[in-house]
Specification:
Layout: H1 3-12, E1 17-23, E2 29-35, H2 41-46, E3 48-51, E4 65-70, E5 76-78, E6 85-93, H3 104-118, E7 123-135, E8 137-142, E9 147-152, H4 186-198, E10 203-208, E11 215-220, E12 223-224, H5 225-245, E13 249-251, E14 265-273, E15 276-277, H6 290-301, H7 303-310, H8 316-319, E16 329-333, E17 339-342, E18 354-356, H9 365-381, H10 403-406, H11 416-425, H12 428-431, H13 438-457, H14 462-468
Parallel strand pairs: 1-6, 16-17
Antiparallel strand pairs: 1-2, 3-4, 4-6, 5-6, 7-11, 7-12, 7-13, 7-14, 8-9, 10-11, 14-15, 14-18, 17-18
Helix pairs in contact: 3-5, 3-9, 4-5, 5-9, 6-9, 7-9, 7-11, 11-13
């Protein structure tokens, strides 16, 4: 779509309000709404001014004037408002029109441009699988003398003894693919799929996931890097609004329930050039090309630092523990779901891809996808060999390996603080071609350390009272 197409859409759909979205550095949508009387071709071309000092990770108050510039290709009618409303995603510039290098969409654009300029490929395709929990109630509070959280779901295994219940609860780790009425969120997920389709988002399937307590997954059709990152933002927005309409709450938090599987965002990806898939080779391991193997080596080599962007919450590392199909092992495999990279089985060249299983949806998708791509391209440029580097293939059950065998397998960082330290020491591959600026990387590390790692580390944990109160 072009600007004139947006103007035409506004007329055809009798739009009364236009919602302009930007994404902050951590990865949350922010928006401003203009009545349609204030939206014309100039507005859609030159953009809307805003205060960058009020957006997380952006500028200080002394240089806060910024502009959000609409991307006409993202315009879609928003079904969640009482009056006809158009939604548009924006890029961020300074008042002189210079692209802002901390704008996550700019990073994604930079990554796509760098890929083409490299000559290695001209297109990358991305297919994230976002997992989430649907809760009936959510309560939490944090004060100096008092802290708690509580989530509940009718199908949660802890409700099996509830008076008046019907026995339709799911035991831990037994939630994969049950039918209704045991799957009590089926109809809500169907409503979410229909709303996603209204947004123009192509959905492949939906199903209950492994954990008890309302865990689900809705799978997206693959798309290019920037557009898929946009889609992830739209996806989270749609699911939250549909859940709210039904009196439910949804979270992509990696580990909201102790003792059961957490929420991941498995990221399928592939490279193409001139309409030809580059990851396929009939004679290679798992039918992967040498180029794909180099790409895998790049991702795994940089994984300890990469996770600071793909798993950027303190809660991310509650999920990354052995025993819950958690992809904690820095190896690749044809079918092992505890490996960081799994190669899906296929005989179709166009379906040849790798699946990076470690990420979760607390990540900013623009930064996460761009960072994964840059790590893979670094492996291709350096012709890294994942086998020689000791990354596998690991086609055995890792949980059945001996201690001696496990000693030779690398694991992901144990905390966000550790991942940030790794990123501090290893990020030259991100700044190649100015895809990520040094300023953005340092801002990310400082922001995460001060506002998340330190905040969590300074507070007593409820379990510490059980362990130490009477010590």
């Amino acid at each position: 779509m072009k600007v004139e197409d947006v103007i035409r859409l506004i007329r055809e759909k009798n739009i009364e309000m236009v919602d302009f979205h930007i994404v902050d550095l951590p990865g949350t949508w922010q928006h401003v709404t203009l009545p349609v009387s204030e939206v014309d071709e100039e507005t859609l071309t030159r953009g809307i001014p805003f205060d960058g000092s009020s957006i997380r990770g952006f500028r200080g108050i002394e240089e806060s004037d910024m502009i959000m510039v609409p991307d006409p290709g993202t315009a879609v009618v928003d079904p969640f408002h009482n009056v006809p409303t158009l939604s548009i995603i924006c890029d961020v510039t300074d008042p002189d029109g210079v692209p802002y290098q901390r704008d996550p969409r700019r990073v994604a654009r930079n990554a796509e441009a760098y890929l083409k300029a490299s000559g290695i490929a001209d297109t990358s395709f991305w297919g994230p699988e976002l997992e989430f929990f649907i809760f009936d109630t959510v309560r939490f509070l944090n004060q100096g003398h008092h802290a708690f959280y509580e989530v509940d779901s009718a199908e949660g295994h802890w409700n099996s003894g509830r008076e008046g219940g019907l026995g339709l609860t799911i035991r831990p780790k037994e939630g994969y693919f049950p039918p209704s009425p045991i799957d009590q969120t089926h109809h809500l997920r169907t409503a979410m799929v229909k709303a996603l389709q209204q947004f123009g988002i192509r959905v492949e399937m939906h199903h209950h996931e492994v954990a008890s307590g309302g865990q689900g997954e809705i799978d997206l059709r693959f798309n290019t890097l920037l557009r898929q990152a946009d889609t992830v933002m739209e996806y989270k927005y749609v699911l939250r609004n549909v859940a709210n309409q039904h009196g439910k709450a949804i979270t992509f938090m990696p580990k909201p329930i102790f003792g059961d599987n957490g929420n991941g965002m498995h990221v399928h990806q592939s490279l193409w050039k001139d309409g030809r898939p580059l990851f396929y080779d009939e004679t290679g391991y798992a039918r992967l090309s040498p180029l794909a193997m180099h790409y895998i080596a790049g991702v795994l080599s940089h994984a300890p630092a990469l996770l600071a962007l793909t798993n950027p919450s303190t809660n991310s590392y509650r999920r990354l523990v052995p025993g819950y199909e958690a992809p904690v092992n820095i190896v690749f495999s044809h079918g092992n779901r505890s490996a960081a990279i799994r190669i899906p089985r296929t005989t179709e060249p166009k379906a040849s891809r790798i699946e990076f299983r470690t990420p979760d949806a607390t990540s900013n998708p623009y930064l996460a996808f761009a960072a994964i791509l840059m790590a893979g391209l670094d492996g291709i440029k350096k012709k890294l060999d994942p086998v020689k580097l000791g990354f596998g293939p690991m086609d055995r059950n890792i949980y059945a390996l001996s201690a001696e065998e496990l000693a030779n397998i690398g694991s992901v960082p144990g905390s966000l603080g550790e991942a940030l330290n790794n990123l501090r020491e290893d990020h030259d591959w991100l700044t190649e071609g100015a895809v990520f600026s040094e300023d953005l990387v340092q801002t990310w590390i400082d922001y995460k350390q001060k506002t998340e790692v330190d905040v969590v580390n300074l507070r007593p944990h409820p379990m510490e009272f059980e362990l130490y109160f009477n010590s």
